[in-house]
Design goal:
CATH architecture of the domain at 5-215: Alpha-Beta Barrel
Bound molecules: flavin mononucleotide
CATH topology of the domain at 5-215: TIM Barrel
Largest sheet: 8 strands, parallel, barrel
Strand content: 15-25%
Oligomer: single chain
Strand order of the largest sheet: 1-2-3-4-5-6-7-8
Helix content: 25-40%
CATH superfamily of the domain at 5-215: Aldolase class I
Number of helices: 12
Radius of gyration: 18 Å
Structural class: alpha/beta
Number of strands: 10
Distance between the termini: 24 Å
C-alpha cells in the first residue's frame, strides 16, 4: 500500500470526497478540505467556462487562508475532475487552468489520460484515474497515472459491475501504488473495510449529497434519507453508460424503472440536454444519481459534522476489529 506524501501528511481521514456532476461546487469542496478529506469537483460544473478560474481562485485562496489561521489542523488538498471524452470540448482549456493554478490532484474519467498526465506532472501534481476493469487499469498505468480509482458495484454515477472484494486484490496483484476504492462507502466502518482489503483511500460520493453544502435540491437530499439499496436502479438509458440512479426520480419523470430500454453509447454526451428517449427528463438534474450506500443515510448534516462522525466510526471500528 502506498500514499503520496501530499496525502500522507495532510489527511485527517483516508477519504476523497468524490466529484459529482452538478452536486460538487466550491461550498462543498472547501468544507471537505477544511475537515481533512480531499474535496473534488468536476471542471464541467463550473459553467460557463470562465467560472472555472473564479472557482480555482476562491478554493486556493480560502484554503490557504484557513491553513494559515489553523497551522495545527490537517487541511486536505483539493482535486479537479476532468472528463476525457470527445463530448468535452473544454478539456484542453480546463487542463491549462489546472496547470496555471497547480491543482494538487487531477482526477480523470473515461478515456486514458495521456495528455493530462504530462501536463499535471509538469508542476508536480498527481493524477488519479477512474477504472472499472483490469484492462482499463493497465491502460491507465501505461499512461503514467499516480493512482487508480476502482469504481465498483453499487457506486453512484457510472458504476462498474465488479465486487470490491474481487477487483481490489486483482489490481493489487500487479500494482503496489495508490488504490482508491469507490462504491457504496457511507460509514467509517466501510472506510476501514476498504483499507483492509487493500485500498489506500475510500472514495465517497452519495453520502455527501445529503449534506448542507451539497448543490442538490431538498427533494433529492430527502430522497436519499428515505431510500435503501434496493431503491437504486442500474441503467444505461440516461447517459449511454451504465450508472446507478434513484428509483423514485425515474418514477417522477414518468418512466417505469423496471422496463427501461438500453441507452445509446455512441450518443454519450456529458452535460447534454434533455433526451427525447427519457421523455425530456435530464440525467443528473431530474434523474438523480445515487449509490447503494443510500440505505445508511439518515440525516442531512453539515459536511464538518459528517466528517467528524465518519472519523469517530472509523476509529471505533478499528478498535472493535483489533479487540475481536
Ligand atoms: C450524482 C452523481 C454524479 C457524479 N458525477 C461524476 C462526475 O461528474 N465525474 C466522475 O468522475 N464521477 C462522478 N460520479 C461518481 C463519483 O465520483 C463516485 O465514483 C461515486 O459517487 C462513488 O460511489 P458512492 O456514490 O456510492 O459513494 C458521480 C456520482 C454521483 C452520485
Amino acid at each position: 500500500m502506498s500514499l503520496p506524501q501530499l496525502l500522507r501528511d495532510n489527511l485527517a481521514l483516508p477519504v476523497i470526497g468524490s466529484p459529482m456532476f452538478i452536486v460538487s461546487t466550491p461550498d462543498l469542496v472547501i468544507e471537505q478540505c477544511k475537515a481533512g478529506i480531499v474535496g473534488a469537483f468536476p471542471a464541467l460544473n463550473a459553467r460557463p467556462e470562465p467560472v472555472l478560474e473564479q472557482w480555482l481562485q476562491r478554493i486556493t485562496s480560502e484554503l490557504a487562508a484557513y491553513k494559515a489561521a489553523h497551522p495545527d489542523k490537517k487541511v486536505a488538498p483539493f482535486a479537479v475532475n476532468q472528463i476525457v471524452h470527445a463530448s468535452n470540448p473544454r478539456l484542453q482549456h480546463d487542463i491549462e487552468l489546472c496547470v496555471k493554478y497547480k491543482v494538487p490532484v487531477v482526477i480523470t474519467s473515461l478515456r486514458a489520460p495521456d495528455q493530462a498526465v504530462e501536463a499535471v506532472h509538469s508542476y508536480g501534481g498527481l493524477v488519479f484515474h477512474d477504472v472499472t476493469t483490469i484492462q482499463h487499469a493497465k491502460r491507465a498505468l501505461k499512461a503514467g497515472v499516480d493512482g487508480l480509482i476502482l469504481v465498483c458495484n453499487g457506486a453512484g454515477g457510472h458504476a462498474g459491475r465488479l465486487s470490491p472484494f474481487a477487483l481490489v486484490p486483482e489490481v493489487r496483484a500487479f500494482y503496489d501504488g495508490t488504490i482508491i476504492l469507490s462504491g457504496a462507502i457511507a460509514s467509517g466502518d466501510a472506510i476501514l473495510a476498504a483499507q483492509s482489503i487493500g485500498a489506500d483511500l475510500a472514495y465517497i460520493g452519495t453520502r455527501f449529497i445529503a449534506t448542507q453544502e451539497a448543490n442538490a435540491v431538498p427533494g433529492y437530499k430527502q430522497a436519499l434519507v428515505d431510500s435503501a439499496a434496493e431503491d437504486i436502479v442500474y441503467s444505461s438509458l440516461f447517459s449511454g453508460v451504465h450508472g446507478n440512479y434513484l428509483r423514485s426520480s425515474i418514477v417522477a419523470a414518468g418512466m417505469d424503472p423496471d422496463k427501461l430500454p438500453d441507452g445509446d453509447k455512441s450518443a454519450m454526451d456529458f452535460g447534454a440536454g434533455a433526451d427525447p428517449a427519457t421523455g425530456g427528463a435530464k440525467a443528473w438534474r431530474d434523474i438523480w444519481g445515487a449509490g447503494q450506500g443510500t440505505g445508511q443515510i439518515r440525516d442531512i448534516p453539515t459536511t464538518a459534522e459528517l466528517v467528524t462522525r465518519l472519523g469517530q466510526e472509523y476509529r471505533a471500528a478499528r478498535e472493535r476489529v483489533l479487540a475481536a
